[in-house]
Amino acid sequence: MMQDSFAFIIHPLDPKRDVSRKYPALGKLPAWLIEFLSIFYPPVFISKIEGVQSVENGRSLTGWFIACPLTPNMMLRLPTALVYRKIVQTGKLAEKLGARVLGLGAFTSVVGDGGITIARQLNIPVTTGDSYTIAQAVHAIEEAAVLLENPLSTATVAVVGATGAIGSVCAQLLAPQCQQLLLIGRRIEKLQEVATAVRQQGAAQVTISANMADLAQADFVITVTSAVETIIEPHHLRPGAVVCDVSRPRDVSKQVAEQRPDVLVIEGGMVEVPGPVNFNFDFGFPPKMAYACMAETMALALDGNYVSFTLGKDIKLSQVQTIDTIAQRHGFKLGGFRSFERAVTSSQIAVVKAARIPDGDAVGAVPFLNPKTNTFVDSVKI
Question: Distance (Å, rounded) from C-alpha 187 to C-alpha 167?
Answer without folding.
Answer: 13
